[in-house]
Amino acid sequence: MKRIxxxxxxxxxxxxxxxxxxxxxxxxxxxxxxxxxxVQLTYSGKKCQMAFNDRDNEYRVYDDNLANWFIVRCxxxxxxxxxxxxxxxxxxxxxxxxxxTGKTFKVVKTDDQGYIWLQNxxxxxxxxxxxx
Length: 132
Known about the structure:
The chain is mostly beta strands and about 130 residues long. It has 1 helix and 9 strands; from the N terminus they run αβββββββββ.
Protein backbone atom coordinates (compact mmCIF):
# COMPACT_ATOMS: atom_id res chain seq x y z
CA MET A 1 0.00 0.00 0.00
CA LYS A 2 2.85 2.35 0.84
CA ARG A 3 4.33 1.83 -2.65
CA ILE A 4 1.03 2.70 -4.30
CA UNK A 5 0.78 5.95 -2.36
CA UNK A 6 4.38 6.90 -3.23
CA UNK A 7 3.75 6.03 -6.89
CA UNK A 8 0.56 8.16 -6.94
CA UNK A 9 2.40 11.11 -5.39
CA UNK A 10 5.17 10.76 -7.96
CA UNK A 11 2.68 10.77 -10.85
CA UNK A 12 0.90 13.83 -9.48
CA UNK A 13 4.16 15.68 -8.89
CA UNK A 14 5.55 14.97 -12.35
CA UNK A 15 2.23 15.74 -14.02
CA UNK A 16 2.01 19.12 -12.32
CA UNK A 17 5.42 20.37 -13.41
CA UNK A 18 5.20 23.63 -15.36
CA UNK A 19 5.96 23.54 -19.06
CA UNK A 20 9.57 24.27 -19.89
CA UNK A 21 8.39 26.45 -22.78
CA UNK A 22 9.13 30.09 -21.95
CA UNK A 23 6.69 32.92 -22.47
CA UNK A 24 6.60 33.29 -26.25
CA UNK A 25 6.62 37.07 -26.29
CA UNK A 26 9.31 37.97 -23.81
CA UNK A 27 12.18 36.87 -26.03
CA UNK A 28 11.50 39.20 -28.98
CA UNK A 29 10.91 42.90 -29.45
CA UNK A 30 10.87 43.10 -33.25
CA UNK A 31 8.49 41.80 -35.91
CA UNK A 32 8.61 38.03 -35.56
CA UNK A 33 6.83 34.75 -35.04
CA UNK A 34 7.71 32.49 -32.12
CA UNK A 35 6.34 28.99 -31.57
CA UNK A 36 6.87 26.95 -28.42
CA UNK A 37 9.60 29.33 -27.29
CA UNK A 38 11.59 29.13 -30.53
CA VAL A 39 11.78 32.03 -32.96
CA GLN A 40 10.65 30.88 -36.40
CA LEU A 41 11.38 34.13 -38.27
CA THR A 42 12.45 37.63 -37.33
CA TYR A 43 12.02 40.53 -39.75
CA SER A 44 15.21 42.19 -40.89
CA GLY A 45 14.95 45.31 -43.05
CA LYS A 46 18.10 44.29 -44.90
CA LYS A 47 16.92 40.83 -45.96
CA CYS A 48 13.13 40.70 -45.56
CA GLN A 49 9.98 42.18 -47.02
CA MET A 50 6.77 43.01 -45.19
CA ALA A 51 3.25 43.59 -46.52
CA PHE A 52 -0.25 44.25 -45.22
CA ASN A 53 -3.52 43.61 -47.08
CA ASP A 54 -6.12 45.89 -45.51
CA ARG A 55 -9.09 44.12 -47.14
CA ASP A 56 -8.19 40.73 -45.60
CA ASN A 57 -6.40 42.02 -42.48
CA GLU A 58 -3.45 39.93 -43.64
CA TYR A 59 0.15 40.48 -42.52
CA ARG A 60 3.00 38.89 -44.49
CA VAL A 61 6.71 38.70 -43.75
CA TYR A 62 9.13 37.05 -46.20
CA ASP A 63 12.88 36.79 -46.47
CA ASP A 64 14.31 37.96 -49.82
CA ASN A 65 14.76 34.36 -51.01
CA LEU A 66 11.09 33.55 -50.24
CA ALA A 67 12.37 30.51 -48.35
CA ASN A 68 11.21 31.65 -44.91
CA TRP A 69 7.96 33.47 -44.28
CA PHE A 70 4.93 33.87 -42.05
CA ILE A 71 1.39 34.96 -42.82
CA VAL A 72 -1.22 36.07 -40.29
CA ARG A 73 -4.81 36.60 -41.48
CA CYS A 74 -6.85 38.24 -38.73
CA UNK A 75 -10.61 38.40 -38.25
CA UNK A 76 -10.17 42.13 -37.66
CA UNK A 77 -7.26 44.54 -37.55
CA UNK A 78 -5.83 44.30 -34.03
CA UNK A 79 -5.40 47.72 -32.43
CA UNK A 80 -5.97 47.71 -28.66
CA UNK A 81 -4.43 45.90 -25.71
CA UNK A 82 -6.77 43.30 -24.20
CA UNK A 83 -8.59 42.77 -27.48
CA UNK A 84 -9.21 39.18 -28.62
CA UNK A 85 -9.15 38.23 -32.29
CA UNK A 86 -9.27 35.07 -34.37
CA UNK A 87 -6.50 34.42 -36.89
CA UNK A 88 -5.16 31.89 -39.34
CA UNK A 89 -1.37 31.58 -39.13
CA UNK A 90 1.05 29.85 -41.51
CA UNK A 91 4.84 29.79 -41.58
CA UNK A 92 7.84 27.88 -42.76
CA UNK A 93 9.37 25.82 -40.00
CA UNK A 94 12.32 23.48 -39.64
CA UNK A 95 10.11 20.51 -40.59
CA UNK A 96 8.01 22.13 -43.31
CA UNK A 97 5.06 24.47 -43.39
CA UNK A 98 2.97 24.91 -40.24
CA UNK A 99 -0.70 25.93 -40.44
CA UNK A 100 -3.03 26.90 -37.63
CA THR A 101 -6.56 28.01 -38.52
CA GLY A 102 -9.19 29.77 -36.44
CA LYS A 103 -6.91 30.35 -33.44
CA THR A 104 -7.73 32.88 -30.75
CA PHE A 105 -5.09 35.51 -30.05
CA LYS A 106 -5.00 38.14 -27.35
CA VAL A 107 -3.44 41.54 -28.01
CA VAL A 108 -1.09 41.69 -25.04
CA LYS A 109 0.79 44.85 -25.97
CA THR A 110 0.78 47.75 -28.43
CA ASP A 111 3.05 50.75 -28.87
CA ASP A 112 2.90 54.16 -30.49
CA GLN A 113 4.91 52.96 -33.54
CA GLY A 114 2.12 50.55 -34.54
CA TYR A 115 3.65 47.33 -33.21
CA ILE A 116 1.14 44.73 -31.98
CA TRP A 117 2.04 41.76 -29.76
CA LEU A 118 -0.32 38.79 -30.22
CA GLN A 119 -0.32 35.66 -28.11
CA ASN A 120 -2.07 32.31 -28.28
CA UNK A 121 -1.25 30.57 -24.99
CA UNK A 122 -2.83 27.24 -25.94
CA UNK A 123 -0.56 26.61 -28.93
CA UNK A 124 2.34 28.74 -27.60
CA UNK A 125 2.33 31.11 -30.58
CA UNK A 126 3.66 34.64 -30.17
CA UNK A 127 3.51 37.10 -33.04
CA UNK A 128 4.70 40.67 -33.32
CA UNK A 129 3.31 42.55 -36.32
CA UNK A 130 3.09 46.18 -37.31
CA UNK A 131 0.05 48.19 -38.35
CA UNK A 132 0.70 50.68 -41.13
